[in-house]
Amino acid sequence: MAEVSPDDIGEDKSLLLVDDDEPFLRRLAKAMEKRGFEIETADSVAAGRAIATARPPAYAVVDLRLEDGNGLDIVEVLRERRPDARVVVLTGYGAIATAVAAVKIGATDYLSKPADATDITNALLARGDDLPPP
What we know:
The chain is α/β, with parallel strands linked by helices. It has helices at 6-9, 22-34, 45-54, 72-81, 96-105, 117-125, and strands at residues 14-18, 38-42, 59-63, 65-66, 69-70, 86-91, 109-112.
């Protein structure tokens, strides 16, 4: 995918990033902001659930394993509060079972770490039959 324009993102550019790896979270937030997203960050399930409940974003990137629990809990809240949200689940522990669980619960896509901002943007903005390259 070429450079993302703000038009690709849509009218609502809100993006929730949830990860307990502070340096990764800061780098990703900066990279996604440069791509035109309006960022909110959280470093725990509790903080992510609070933001998802109060201000459900159009987009979210959620780490699967967080210090205080499972990132899929945040995905569930997002699905309840904003069914059209596009959610990508990240994990350093790639396994088919967790990928299936993430998608069943409502994630748009599932990426193994290390995923860069381009991979994440492509997953967030993929539509319909868009498939990633092999």
